[in-house]
Amino acid sequence: MRRKLVGGRLLDLVDGSLTAVDVLVDADAGTVLAIGRELPEADEQHDVRGAVLLPGFIDVHVHLREPGFEHKETIATGTAAAAAGGFSQIACMPNTNPPLDEAEHVEWVRRQAAASGRTRVWPMGCITRGQQGRSLTDFAALREAGAIALSDDGKGVQDGGLMREAMLRAAALDLPIAIHAEDETLARTGVLNPPAARRLGVEPQPGESESAMIARDILLAEQTGARLHICHVSVEPAVALIRWAKARGVRVTAEVTPHHLLLSEDAIDGDDAVYKVNPPLRSEADRQACLEGFLDGTLDMAATDHAPHSSEEKAAGLAAAPFGMVGIETIFPLLYTHLVVPGLLTFPQLVQRMSTRPAAAFGLSGGVIRVGGPADITAVQLERERPIDPARFYSKGRNTPFAGWPVTGWPVLTMVGGRIVLCDREEGGRP
Ligand code: DOR
Question: pLDDT at residue 431 above 60?
C-alpha cells in the first residue's frame, strides 16, 4: 500500500531551507519511496498543506509505567501521547513493577508495544537487579531480548565498584549505560534545590549530588571505554564536566529536559508538587548553563523524562508527592516557541537535537527523511498557536508546569513506518 503526503515543505537539516514537496511511502515496507513533485499515484493521500515535514522525533527518556503503574500511564496511552507530540520512536525506562531486569520483562514490553503502541518503543533494561544497586543484571540476555541500553533511572547506582563492573560488561557488548546521577549520601531525602527548599521549608537536594556522580562515571567511562549517556542534566558543573569529558575523547552523550531549559527554581510558587521533579529545578545560573550547553552541543539532545503521575499522587504536596513531570506532548512547541522563534537556536538545530542526534547516540534508524529510509515523519504547523491544555492530553498524566503557556508549532501528523499514528487537521479539534 502506498501513501502520499501532499503539499508539505521539507526542512533541509543543513541549511534550514524549506522546499515544497510531496512524499510517497511504501506503507508495507515502511520506507520512503520518493520525495519531490509530480510523484506517481498512491492508494491514499494526506493533505499536509502548510506543514513542515521533519524526521520523526525520538525521545530516549520516557516512563510508560506499564507493567505495574497503569493508573499513571500505559503503553497504549503513553505512545498515543508520544505520537501526539510528534514522536515516532521512544525509549522507555525500566522503573516499572516488576522492573525490566529480566529478559522476559523486556520481551513483554516489546510485545505489548507492538500490539498496542502507536510509536516504536525501545526498552532500557535495568543495570542492577530490582534497581537495588547490589548486583548486576544479565546484560547479554537483556540485549538479546531487545534492550537498547541499560539504566537504573529514578535512582543512582551508589556503589562505584559495581558501576565500574557494569561499564566493563556494557563496553564488551557495546551497550550504552544511561545514568540517573544522584549520590544519595549528598541528596539524602532532598526535594528541591537548596534556595527553594529553604524558601518553602522542605529538604534540600544540592546540585553536587548530581555532578559528583557524573564526575565519577565520566572517569569510569574513560577507564573502561564504555558508552555513557547522562540523563536529565540540570546543573552548571555537570555541563562543564561533560564538556571536559568530550574534549578528552570520552564516549559520552547527554540529554537535557525542556523543564530544565525553560524553568528555574524561581518558578516554584508555594507548595505545589507540579514543580517537583528529579533532578530538581535549579538556579537561574544553572538554567543558563544548560541552555548554553544545549546550544553548543555539549548536551547532545533534548529528552522529556516524561513522568506521569495521578492527580491524587501530585496533590500530596512538595514533601510527599512523587517526583516527575509529563512532557512528551508539549516539548516541540515549547522549544520551538522559546528557543527557535527568539533566535537562540536554528530550526535545523532543534530538529537535530530531537531526532538526528538521539538516533545516532543510540544506533536507531531515522533522524533524517531520505528515499529508502524509514517512513518516520512528523508534520508540524509552525503557525498553529494554542495554549497548553492538559485536558487535551492523551497521556493519563496531567502533571505539567506549562499549563496555559501559549505556544506555537503543534505537530499535526505523525507517521511511523508509513503508518499514520496522529492525524489532526482540525484547528482546535482532538484527532
Ligand atoms: O522526576 C523524575 N521522575 N525523575 C526521575 O528520575 C524518575 C521519574 C519517575 O519515574 O517518576
Answer: no
User: What is residue 285's three-state secondary structure?
Assistant: helix
In sequence order, what are the residues at sequence separation of 6 or more whose Cβ sits closer than 8 angstroms to the Cβ of residue 367? Answer: 55, 58, 352, 355, 356, 357, 358, 359, 360
SS3 216: helix
Cα–Cα–Cα angle for 118, 120, 124, rounded to 5 degrees: 125
Q: How far apart are CA 365 and CA 296, in angstroms?
A: 24
The pLDDT-based confidence of 429 (bands split at 50, 70, 90) is very low
Say if residues 255 and 60 touch (Cβ distance below 8 Å).
yes
Look at ligand 1, atom 1, and give the residue with the nearest C-alpha.
Answer: 324
What average pLDDT does this structure show over 100-106?
A: 98
305 is catalytic: yes
Q: How many CA atoms lie within 13 A of 328 on its CB side?
A: 34
Report CA torsion sign: 378, 401, 318, 208. positive
Band the pLDDT of 423: cuts 50, 70, 90. confident
Domains of the chain: 2-53+372-423 (2.30.40.10), 56-362 (3.20.20.140)
Q: If you measure from the C-alpha of residue 232 to the centroid of ligand 1, how many angstroms do you get, rounded to a whole number?
A: 10
Atom of ligand 1 nearest to the CA of 231: 6
Take atom 5 of ligand 1 and give the residue whose Cα is closest.
Answer: 154
Amino acid symbol at 7: G
Which residue among the candidates 22, 59, 305, 376 is catalytic per the annotation? 305
Residue found by looking up cell 507517521 in the block: 415
Pocket of ligand 1 from Cβ distances under 6 Å: 63, 95, 153-154, 180, 277-278, 305, 307, 322-324
In ligand 1, the atom with minimum distance to the C-alpha of 182 is 6
CB–CB of 411/84 below 8 Å?
A: yes
User: Which three-class secondary structure state does DSSP give residue 391?
Assistant: helix
In angstroms, the CA 176 to CA 87 distance is: 21
What 3-state DSSP class applies to 116?
A: helix
CB burial readout 379-396, b (16+ within 10 A) else e: bbbbebeeebebeebbbb
Q: Whose CA is nearest to atom 2 of ligand 1?
A: 324
The burial of 9, by beta-carbon neighbours within 10 Å (0-12 exposed, 13-18 middle, 19 or more buried), is given as middle
CB contact at 8 A, 158 and 184: yes
The C-alpha cell of 313 is what?
499522587
Q: Is the pLDDT of residue 426 over 80?
A: no
Separation of CA 277 and ligand 1 centre (Å): 7
